[in-house]
Structures are given as C-alpha cells and as structure tokens.
Amino acid sequence: MISRIRHPYLDHPGPIAFAHRGGAADGLENTVAQFHRAVEAGYRYIETDVHATADGKLVAFHDVTLDRVTDGAGRIADLPWNDVRHARVAGAEPVPLFEELLETFPDVRWNVDVKAEPALLPLLDLIRATGSWDRVCVGSFSEARVARAQRVAGPRLATSYGIRGVLGLRLKSWGLPAALRRSAVCAQVPEAQSGIPVVDRRFVGAAHARGLQVHVWTVNEPERMHRLLDLGVDGIMTDHIDTLRGVLQDRGTWA
C-alpha cells in the first residue's frame, strides 16, 4: 500500500472496496435501490457511469442505449430527460440523475466513468456547483477525455488513467520509456486484457513508485480478490458486493 495520499478522494484505511455499478450482480445496476443496498452493506465507494441526455441532463447509466437493461429503447444522447426518466431498469427502477445521487448519498465517494464526450462538461459543472471535489474521481477509457477534464478542472479533480495512460505505466513497469500524465492519482485497470496480464508485482510497484494507487476491475471471485490483494493493489471493483466484503473481513481490512 502507498503511504502518501495524493488526493483526499483516496483517503481511506486499507484497500478500497468499490461497488461496481452499485453491485451489478443483483440486476438493478446503476439504480438508487442498488446504491442503497451497497451503502447498507457498508460500501463507501461506488462506481458508476454517466451519459448526457439530448437536453443536457446527466444520468447514471452504463450503456449508450436504454435497450439492454430497461423497458425503454433508444440512444440516451438522442432522448430528452423526460423520455429517459420513464424507463425502468429491470422493469422496476428508474434511471437516476447523477445530481440525485450526490444528494441522496452524501457520504459516498463516486468513481465516475464518463462514457461520452457530451457528459464531461456537465459532470465538471455539477462537481463544481456541489463542491464535490473530494467525492468524485473521473475516469474514462479515453485518456484524452480525462486529460481534458483535468485541464478544465485543475488539481482539485481526482482522475484515473485512460487506456493510453495505463499502457504507458505498463511500459514503465518493464523499464521501457513512456510519457505519463502526472496529474492522475490512480490507475484503474482490468486484471488482464485479451489474455495478457496487466496487474502483476512490477505493474503495482511501478504505480506505487509514482504515488499512484492501483484499482482493479471487475473482480467477482474470492480467489482472484485474494491474489490481487496479496500483490498489493489498493482497490477492487466488484459486482458481487457481499463476496468482496467477506474477503476483506477475512483479511481484517474491511473498513
């Protein structure tokens, strides 16, 4: 574990347990009901995703379209909020506004994957308006998007690496030259990509040497959780929130 905390968002004793989409295994991903369940289970960090509707409302939702998980249909970017708000996840729960989540769960810290460029500035405006600098870490597969977020918001904003940043850190771990954005505070990565390991002792060591935390997604099996924690990773994102809590309790690091 790293001793130096680069941003207040990361100020947490022990490994960070992230409820991925609130705990997607229950089938109510990215809903207020599922976030309540995660909080009641003791989670203080929740991963979610954001899109902007056609009229600029910021919603917590993973997919580009409503089709997979709701009884609605269509691209969120093409729909007004009044249409999106009537869709029901699993036919039961509404799609929440991210602003609603900040208000409803004042003690939660949010890891936010910005899924599309139109959502970026509304997210930064909301963080600024609510003073949520210490409660939100912004990530994206696009390194250009998170770099832009950092330029706009400055050092108050916690950001993770996108794909290009993670690749640079992987190269550094092998002793190869690579340019790295210094403003990131963490690397959020899969355990492996296309069968190629990403997280090993060299990768974790390279991150820690640069003051970066390593958060791994999406890990649902206890044996994998234990292996990653033994490597020294700083956080795990899971769909199975009871499983991760049990693993951390067994290790005496649930906090």
UniProtKB/TrEMBL annotation:
CDD domains the UniProt entry points to: GDPD_cytoplasmic_ScUgpQ2_like
Residue ranges crossing the lipid bilayer per the database entry: none
Source taxon at top rank: Bacteria
GO term, biological process aspect, one: lipid metabolic process
Record domain GP-PDE: where: 15-248
Pfam families from the UniProt entry: GDPD
GO molecular function annotation: phosphoric diester hydrolase activity
The protein's name in its UniProt record: Glycerophosphodiester phosphodiesterase
